[in-house]
Write a structure and sequence with these properties.
Elements (H helix, E strand, L loop, with lengths): L2 H13 L10 H15 L17 H11 L5 H12 L8 H4 L12 E3 L4 E3 L1 H11 L11 H12 L14 H15 L9 H7 L4 E2 L2 E2 L12 E3 L4 E3 L1 H11 L10 H13 L9 E3 L1
Parallel strand pairs: 5-7
Antiparallel strand pairs: 1-2, 3-4, 5-6
């Protein structure tokens, strides 16, 4: 497909939000979405999109690779492993809720047909805790970020493979809501997620190179130098909303879970390489 045709298809992906005639299937969306970035950045090996902005910023990548020799998330990995192995007060552990062990990040998010909702890994972890008489963890940072960092590290190399069950129209509806959220303008700046990370990916905003959206979900949770600590994907969602002066939703809200469902589906086929380190 030529660059011109990719651009037309990408425009159709955006138009499908508002014009029924442009409606497309998730598979069609994914093909358009991924082709847009592989055509926009033809020198980037496809798997490299899992590295975020460092796939397209050679100077930043050099600094990042140096940091990864002694990653700032090492303490989080140790703390997360301790949490995984420490029994709850009732004697059970996370392994009783996740019998396949900690290396299961590739299974999330998924559509829970019985409950009619998207289930993410942090949500499942807190549900495990509550079911075993423990208090839920903060969804944005702290122990939740450390526990999911350990699980992400154990899951490195798994391939993103989100499914949208064809036999449940509610799953498609959740996907479409996530897609709509991604392309919808909001806040005083009237920006959408796609303004920065789709059409303007690779350009510079102030001093920052805007990362491609393809691969955005593969490397979480992340240690951000700006935060000085680990943080979750939904913490970043809320922060992005607030940066455009929109009211952010709470981490693990339906809005953000649907957004994660859409964005992760768009990165199907990429390997997981979390946790990550970013500015």
């Amino acid at each position: 497909m030529s660059k011109f045709m990719i651009s037309l298809a990408a425009a159709g992906l955006i138009c499908s939000l508002a014009v029924p005639a442009f409606a497309s299937t998730p598979d069609e969306d994914k093909a358009i979405f991924q082709a847009y970035f592989t055509e926009r950045f033809p020198k980037v090996p496809e798997q490299d999109f899992a590295n975020g902005v460092y796939a397209i910023d050679p100077v930043g990548r050099e600094n990042w690779e140096a940091i990864e020799e002694f990653p700032p998330y090492e303490t989080a990995l140790t703390n997360g492993e301790t949490m995984w192995n420490t029994p709850f007060a009732n004697g059970k552990t996370y392994a009783d809720c996740f019998p396949d062990g900690p290396a299961n990040v590739g299974k999330f998010p998924y559509w829970d047909k019985a409950r009619g909702m998207v289930v993410t890994l942090p949500l499942a972890l807190n549900e495990c805790r509550v079911a075993n008489g423990e208090k839920p963890l903060d969804y944005a940072k702290g122990p939740m970020a450390e526990l999911t960092a350990f699980m992400a590290f154990e899951s490195r190399g798994q391939v993103t493979a989100v499914e949208i069950p064809a036999d449940d129209p509610r799953a498609l509806e959740a996907y479409e809501k996530g897609k709509e959220f991604y392309f919808a303008r909001r806040g005083q700046f009237n920006f959408s997620c796609s303004h920065c990370h789709f059409g303007n990916s690779g350009t510079t905003l102030r001093t920052e190179i805007l990362s491609p959206a393809y691969g955005h979900t593969t490397h979480w949770p992340v240690y951000r130098s700006k935060w000085g600590e680990m943080g979750t994907l939904h913490r970043r969602y809320k922060g992005c909303n607030e940066q455009v002066r929109a009211k952010g939703f709470e981490p693990q809200s339906e809005e953000y879970r649907n957004l994660e469902y859409f964005m992760t589906y768009m990165s199907n086929g990429l390997e997981l390489n979390g946790p990550g380190a970013r500015k």
